Amino acid sequence: MASKPDLSSLLKLKRRILEYVAVVRSPQTPVHVKLLAVAAGLYLLMPVDLIPDMVPVLGLTDDAAIIGLFLSYLNRFVTEDIKRSVDQKNTPKS
Question: Whole-model pTM?
Fold first, then answer.
């Protein structure tokens, strides 16, 4: 039985997603990284896959592998400046 994600896990996930978006939007990010982001997104939306999604268990592994490889590569471009800007934008104002 799967446990419910706690709030801190969801907040960490939100922060990581915002960091990835900031990397892709950043003018300092190389063009090839931005093109890889578009290519990864298009691959996930394409109806044709290396392994059809209808194949049980294996059908989604190619999609998961593409996402995992791309995000691990994208992590290299998350700088301290990007982390600070994401933190500043998402800090609740009192």
Answer: 0.77
